[in-house]
Design brief:
This protein is mainly α. It has helices spanning 6-41, 45-73, 75-94, 99-114, 117-127, 131-163, 167-170, 172-186, 200-223, 228-250, 264-294, 299-305, 307-327, 330-351, 358-385, 389-419, 423-443, 448-460. The longest helix has 36 residues, at 6-41.
């Protein structure tokens, strides 16, 4: 790939930041709009769950193959196609006449989103070749992730109050068009010298596994765990898992490398990602319904109450990264687990009050923001640092996929508790996820040198 001149690198960074802003905003901004969507579309709680999970499930399923396809076909080409798909699907979401159509358009939106985040990172890596410049560029890129989290709830509240829930999708259209124009002007085409081979069978089995498990968890509270569709989905999921692992083990270039899970730190990082993002997905889903339906707040009021959590989610990641670099991942993971656990426990106390104080609510959101803000850096570090260099990219892709899987399962499991009328159980599940992160941080991580040495030996073995 030809490296752009210095003056053309800033627009490339801007394009990549706009793409991650699209994907990040679409997660945080939509939660605030859920009650309005429910009223307008006459949706059930499970319908709201599918509106969120359709996006995260498809994203989780397609992240890895989208990155591999971009390496093979051309990164700019796939990136531009993803922008077109995401922008067009956002416009369709704003016009959706029913929950079913909205879920369908969200799957298309997610297919486009899967081509943005991993491909943007590959474009950044190949554009900023000098290590210090690359670190600064990735820092800016990561800061935009935090910004989307911080701005999403408040911006969503303003849009819903002033123009209705459909406006949260309109916002994506001008951002997507601007990114598309900049990509055409400034992003050079590039391909990997040797791209990974496609794995359509593994891809199909993964989609079947994630889709059937999520369907069973979301629909079981309404239909019952013994209902034929639910039982069928669980059986199909078990069969897909039983076929997926041996098939991937036989492949030279598998979609997901099962042998990496022999490493305790790597497995711990994946489990931590699933648990932390399950807590996040469930927290945003449950809390938005709680603030607007039970406490009677407006969408803007709910967004403003979430601001303390969003601000710490923006401020804490750089601090967490510095601690990881100096002392290893254990301390940030312990802080993360403690923050999420304490937040869940305080949320239980808040929901037992007819009129909880703003101080109690703010402390709950501050602690969750603290916990979530500290969790991402150690997840990525632990997943990647102990791997041989040739496997680091695969490890990072699995960690990213695990985040989306966790979010899907969190919305499904914790949302099912809400649908069953047990809001308190939902908060206890969130606290339990935090406690599990705390235990994993204490047992599967150590100092940097020890983690790296042990992990590398196990993978090579």
């Amino acid at each position: 790939m030809p490296v752009p001149r210095r003056g053309r690198r800033v627009p490339v960074l801007a394009v990549c930041c706009l793409s991650v802003l699209l994907v990040g905003l679409d997660v945080s901004i939509l939660n605030v709009a859920l009650p309005s969507m429910q009223r307008d579309l006459h949706s059930s709680v499970s319908g709201l769950q599918w509106t969120l999970d359709a996006y995260t499930l498809v994203l989780a399923s397609l992240l890895t193959p989208a990155g591999a396809t971009a390496d093979r076909v051309g990164r700019r080409r796939i990136f531009q196609f993803g922008l077109v798909l995401f922008t067009a699907a956002s416009a369709l979401c704003s016009l959706a006449p029913s929950t079913g159509w909205l879920v369908a358009f969200r799957t298309v939106q997610a297919a486009g989103g899967s081509m943005l985040t991993p491909v943007a990172m590959a474009i950044l890596t190949n554009t900023f070749t000098e290590p210090r410049e690359r670190a600064r560029a990735i820092g800016v890129w990561g800061g935009v992730v935090g910004l989307s989290m911080a701005a999403g709830p408040v911006l969503g509240g303003v849009l819903v109050e002033s123009a209705g829930w459909r406006s949260v999708f309109w916002l994506n259209v001008p951002i997507g068009l601007a990114a598309l124009a900049l990509a055409a002007l400034f992003v050079p085409e590039s391909r990997a010298p040797r791209a990974r081979r496609a794995d359509p069978v593994g891809q199909f089995l993964l989609i079947v596994l994630l889709g059937t498990v999520t369907y069973a968890v979301i629909e079981a509270p309404g239909e019952g765990w013994t209902a034929p569709p639910v039982v069928t989905c669980l059986i199909v999921a078990a069969c897909a898992l039983a076929a997926f692992v041996p098939y991937e083990n036989r492949r030279t270039e598998p979609l997901i490398e099962p042998r990496l899970f022999r490493s305790a730190p790597f497995s711990g990082a994946v489990a931590t990602a699933v648990l932390a993002f399950a807590a996040l997905g469930g927290f945003l889903f449950t809390n938005t319904l709680y603030l607007q339906r039970q406490l009677g707040m407006s969408a803007l009021g709910a967004g403003l109450h979430l601001l303390p959590m969003a601000v710490l989610s923006l401020v804490c990641p750089p601090l967490s990264g510095r601690i990881v670099g100096r002392r290893g991942p254990r301390t940030p993971l312990l802080v993360a687990g403690a923050g999420i656990t304490a937040s869940g426990v305080l949320a239980v106390a808040a929901t037992r009050c007819a009129h909880p104080s703003d101080t109690l609510l703010s402390l709950t959101y501050l602690l969750f923001g603290l916990g979530f803000g500290f969790v991402n850096a150690p997840i990525t570090y632990t997943a990647v640092s102990g791997m041989p260099r040739a496997q680091a990219g695969v490890a990072a892709a699995i960690a990213a996929t695990s985040r989306q899987i966790g979010s899907s399962l969190g919305i499904a499991v914790i949302g099912a508790a809400v649908a069953a009328g047990s809001g308190t159980a939902a908060w206890w599940i969130i606290a339990g996820c935090g406690a599990a992160v705390l235990v994993l941080g204490a047992t599967t991580t150590g100092r940097r040198a020890a983690t790296t040495a042990v992990t590398t030996e196990r993978v090579r073995a």
